Model the fold of this input.
Amino acid sequence: MKVRVGINGYGTIGKRVADAVLMQRDMILAGVTKTKPNFEARVAKQKGIRVYAASADRLQAFSDAGMEVHGTLEDLLREVDIIVDCTPGKVGATYKPLYEKYKVKAIFQGGEKHDVAGFSFNAVCNYDGALGRDLVRVVSCNTTGLCRSLYAVDKAFGIRKARAVLIRRGADPSEDKKGPINSILPDPVGIPSHHGPDIQKVLPNIDITTSAFAVPTTLMHIHWLNLDLQKDATESEIVSILSKYARIKVVPASEGIDSTAQVIEYARDLGRRRYDMPELVIFKESIKSFGREIYLTQAVHQESIVVPENIDAIRAMTNLCNTAEESMRMTDESLGLGGT
Ligand code: NAD
Done:
């Protein structure tokens, strides 16, 4: 059986999820929506992807530009089993009634509130809870990164308390109108940032407090973690646990991978499309143990880390695959994740 997938919103996340769907043997990409006939729509068509106008009032713009579309979002919804909503934050929720009208399952992204779907997803943490669901929210890039490392450490050693400082990229590379361009912005000034409570939607038993700052960079986020464990863990034990997960890359600063710029250069050298790094990157030498208290620094490629999670959410919701391990293995293999 192949599941028919549509993508509403073909921006940073939408175009990556669309490419990932095209690489799955058990999925068909039925089409994507675009609000305007720009170069992204043209390139999608050149790749053979069916493009639909986001709404009927946008059809004229496509026809004026001489760009043929297959209809509107509503036509796409008639064609699919599941829609992956990749519209900007808070826009997704406005589409929920339309998805329900056409009785299609829907995945929302981290820019939406938990309540839009009533279930916040991260594959390694709670795949089973998404089995057969109609609505799921894939958590944000920062929450996804934290869920991966916290899950791995908690499972092996138990986490009594987690404290994290997030240094967030100010904007994505294509967002030339966003900032800050000359400031370090506590985001928010108060504690906690929304990430701690968001992680608890996925991992309810983790005691975590987060604080976040936005800075003038576009490449990646950095997280600094301080974890109080239930039992002692040595640095080499932590490295060996983290290295077992294909979606976590423990990288050696001794080889020169010691900054977000070098992680991206590494992704380029690996030949990754769009220099994507969907794995959570943990700097090996940042892992420090004082018995039960450990420290580590991790980097999150915000544009791509949620892509494999969206693919697994599709499999869980449509019952294409009933175990997290099998779905994640298929996703990771198709996207070339894991390894060194
Ligand atoms: P984006 O702005 O890059 O892309 C959104 C796309 O939706 C654009 O192509 C835009 O033209 C289109 N769009 C706008 N209004 C629309 C509408 N009414 N109907 C249909 N399409 C519409 O945004 P993004 O960064 O891809 O973010 C999408 C979602 O993913 C958000 O919830 C965001 O919070 C979440 N997310 C973003 C990142 C990131 O770093 N970019 C990471 C993880 C999660």
About this structure: Residues 8-14, 33, 35, 54, 86-89, 91-92, 109-112, 140-141, 172, 302-303, 306 surround nicotinamide-adenine-dinucleotide (CB under 6 Å).
